[in-house]
Amino acid sequence: MIEPIGNQYIVARPVYSANAFGEDHRKKERHHKTFLDHLKAWCSCSTQKAKRIALSLLPIAAWLPAYRLKEWLLSDIVSGISTGLVAVLQGLAFALLVTIPPRYGLYAAFFPVLTYFLLGTSKHISVGPFPVLSMMVGAVVTRVASDAGTTTNSSSNLMGNDSLLEDRKLLVATSVTVLSGIIQLALGVLQIGFVVIYLSESLISGFTTAAAVHVLVSQLKFMLQLTVPAHSDPFSIFKVLESVFTQIEKTNIADLVTSLVILAAVFVVKEINQHYKAQLPVPIPIELIMAVIATGVSYGFDFEHRFNVSVIGNMKQGFESPITPDVQIFQDTIGDCFGIAIVGFAVAFSVASVYSLKYDYSIDGNQELIALGVSNIFTGAFRGFAGSTALSRSGVQESTGGKTQIAGILSAVIVLIVIVAIGFLLEPLQKSVLAALALGNLKGMLMQFAEIGRLWKKDKYDCFIWIMTFIFAIVLGLGLGLAASVAFQLLTIVFRTQFPKCSTLANIGRSNIYKNRKDYSEMYEPEGVKIFRCPSPIYFANIRFFKQKLTDAVGFSPLRILRKRNKALKKLRKLQKQGLLQVTPKGFIWTADGFRDSDEELDNNRMEELDQPIDTADLPFQIDWNADLPLNIVVPKISLHSLILDFSAVSFLDVSSMRGLKEILQEFIRVNVDVYIVGTDDDFIEKLARCQFFDDEVKDSIFFLTIHDAVLHILMKKDYSTSKFNPSQQKETKFDFTINTNGGLRNRECQVPIETKF
User: Transmembrane residues, as ranges (predicted)?
Assistant: First the structure.
């Protein structure tokens, strides 16, 4: 019964152990579905289920019939044109990161949009090249193509023939893209899109920031027009920097000046776009403006021949024939492809989630995996490279009024026009301009360094994850760096659970509330009772730590006390058998003058014997271990008689730690300390029963629903009278509670106030 009184409440209920609660409240018999049940449900057929599956696999069938032609079409057209122009330039720029000719960046900007239009669930993201992903693909291309060049015989040396090397790089890039798509498709079909949860926001932020630094360093050779050898092994970024600075005197001044001017203009206008985004109808397309100006200037003044700058060069009109992936490259790059697949999905899904929350529609993680997987397979087969979504490009599509993926398909039309008709106009464009445009899109990622300070204030573990992810990705490269970062992140979880912040609780406010006794000034502890809280799972890695913290909390080692008592018992038993010890109402009397007993015999006893329960059945007297013993026998005295373990935050207990926990409970029980466990759920107790945890010493009656139930049970068991409470400060509440007497249970009604004075 609960009776509210103002902002207080009075509860009248029995003091419940887990067993007593189970007797009063029978659990319902529930059928838990087995794997076979789920399999039957999955294999069952119905018209409604078929329709649901069809709509989930082809989301366009759900949203296209509901398209508001008059309201949305104009916005989608404006958005599609703006996004398409940005996509053209980003495709060309990001192709440099993959170390393949820029024209293939247009394929990477065109093909994924077609498949995502049919299969994707987000209405606002723009799929296509993404600098971090392009950098990861480029690292694999550099490594595999270089390995092929060193292993090919001199008659057909790839490194000696630019055309063959270009073809080899393209084959590697497309094969990696196809395999990454296959991995994404497989993960989506198997419904394990949850894999992205292993990439926390801190990890993604640190990784993308490191990738932005890699992109920055990789573009220096285009901005300065230097010949920098390809590096893909760990510490490659430092080798590239060394190569750049050792050749700095060979810098092409025309390329350097052009790229710096482009960078300055892009940064200034992007700041204007950001600052006045509410006033501007659409963001100023600075990338397009600068590309047009740079192309015109380069063509008009013949920069290629006059200043020996590097330009895009031949832009073949139309599409090239599809390419067949290389299975051998699949085998050599499967680890890299898995990282590319996961990073691509994680970035796309996180951006899609932001827009889905903003515009109140749902996205499906597994379907997103399928859409991205099919897009990458399709793109790789047609000579493109792996894509995801660029934050800036998706921002353009959303900020210019894009309502659906109609805007995406219209952006693909713009890219198509460039591919088949006007691509030749971009041939005079300098590669240094593309490098500057690529760097202009990195500002958002480079600004993520500010996350370090914010994370340090919020959560130091997350801050360490960010820092270590950044370091791993910089030093080891993007592929190995991602793997090491995930491993480190999982290791932090182990640290958090392996070394939990255990605490000792006490009563606060003379109520049924128990808090850490270090946090409040007016705390009350029942005499001889200790309440210990563990706020994490207990498993093989932290059971020793749990035992040590518990020992520190109670102030003694129960095993040491047990061994001392068993040693003392041997001495007392020996004296009693020799008739040298008498028992009187006042205590022990030792009647042997000059008796000497060697401790060596006791010390040489086997530890197993000293660890066994104390057995005094053969003695004609009971021993008070907290009293003075004869023969100067010293046994540490303990005032603790009851220990309460708060397991309300213990989510699971593995089999390996059960033995350790049982040993801990046995040690306390054997030194006459009653142990109670509170806050566990029924599954926890059932698992212990299945594993045969309980025996004659450790019984299933030690479980109580709450700390207060256990405390009241202890007070009643120790014969605390109601006079020890202070009912004057709060109204009494009627409790029906259960008293444990000599192993039996009997109900008794008593007036006990909730406010209990200890």
Answer: 77-98, 104-120, 170-199, 251-269, 281-301, 338-357, 369-386, 406-426, 464-491
Residues 6+ apart with CB under 8 A from 496: 461, 536
Q: What's the pLDDT tens digit per position in 42-79?
A: 777 777 777 777 777 888 888 888 888 888 898 899 88
Cα(81)–Cα(401) distance, rounded to whole angstroms?
11
Residues 6+ apart with CB under 8 A from 534: 500, 502, 546, 549, 645, 646, 647, 649, 650
DSSP string, 426-480: GTT-BHHHHHHHHHHT-HHHHGGGGHHHHHHHH-HHHHHHHHHHHHHHHHH-HHH
Which residue(s) pair with 504 in the sheet? Answer: 532
Q: How many CB atoms lie within 10 A of CB 271?
A: 11
Q: What is the mean pLDDT of residues 622-646?
A: 85
Q: Which tokens belong to 261?
A: 């001017």
Q: For residue 210, with 0-12 CB atoms within 10 Å meaning exposed, 13-18 middle and 19 or more buried, which class applies?
A: buried
Judged by DSSP in three states, 380 sits in helix
Single pTM value for the model = 0.76
Contact between residue 736 and residue 14 where contact means Cβ atoms under 8 Å apart: yes
CA 343/CA 137 separation, integer angstroms: 12
Backbone angles phi, psi at 428, to 5 degrees: -75, -5
List all residues 6 or more positions away from 292 whose beta carbon is below 8 Å from its beta carbon. Answer: none
On whether the CB atoms of residues 686 and 30 are closer than 8 A, the answer is no
Per-residue pLDDT band for 148 (boundaries 50, 70, 90) equals: low
By C-alpha distance, which of 132, 141, 129, 115 is closest to 386?
129
Query: How would you classify the pairing of strands 513-516 and 503-508?
Result: antiparallel
- Region of 225 please: left (phi>0), alpha (psi -120 to 50) or beta: left
Lowest mean pLDDT across 421-430, 588-597, 614-623: 588-597
For residues 437 and 107, the answer to whether their CB atoms sit within 8 Å is no
CA distances from 22 to 555, 701, 703, 704, 741 (A): 35, 11, 11, 11, 19
Question: Are 208 and 119 contacting, i.e. CB atoms less than 8 angstroms apart?
Answer: no
- Amino acid identity of 392? S
CA distances from 596 to 544, 575, 588, 630 (A): 39, 11, 17, 13
Strands 674-678 and 703-704: parallel
Is beta strand 642-646 parallel, antiparallel or unpaired with respect to 674-678? parallel
- What is the 3-class SS of 587-656, one letter each residue? EEEECCCCCCCCHHHHHCCCHHHHCCCCCCCCCCCCCCCCCCCCCCCCCCCCCCCEEEEECCCCCCECHH
CA 207 to chain CA mean position, Å:
14
Q: What is the pLDDT of residues 265-295, one digit of tens each?
A: 988 988 888 888 778 777 788 888 888 999 9
CA distances from 555 to 559, 561, 640 (A): 12, 11, 10
Q: Picking from 123-132, 596-605, 720-729, which range would have the lowest pLDDT averaged per residue?
A: 720-729
CA-CA-CA-CA dihedral for 166, 167, 172, 176, to nearest 10 = 110
Q: List Cα–Cα distances, 638 to 332, 362, 556, in angstroms.
A: 66, 61, 8
201/698 Cα distance (integer angstroms): 44
Taking 60 as the threshold, does the pLDDT of residue 646 lie above it? yes
Model confidence at 733, in pLDDT bands (50, 70, 90)? Answer: very low
The span from the CA of 163 to the CA of 740, in Å, is 89
Report whether 437 contacts 87 (CB < 8 A). no
Asked if residue 327 has pLDDT above 80, the reply is yes
Query: Does the pLDDT of residue 727 top 90, yes or no?
Result: no
Residue for token pair 């240094």: 432
738: phi > 0 → left, psi -120 to 50 → alpha, else beta; which? beta
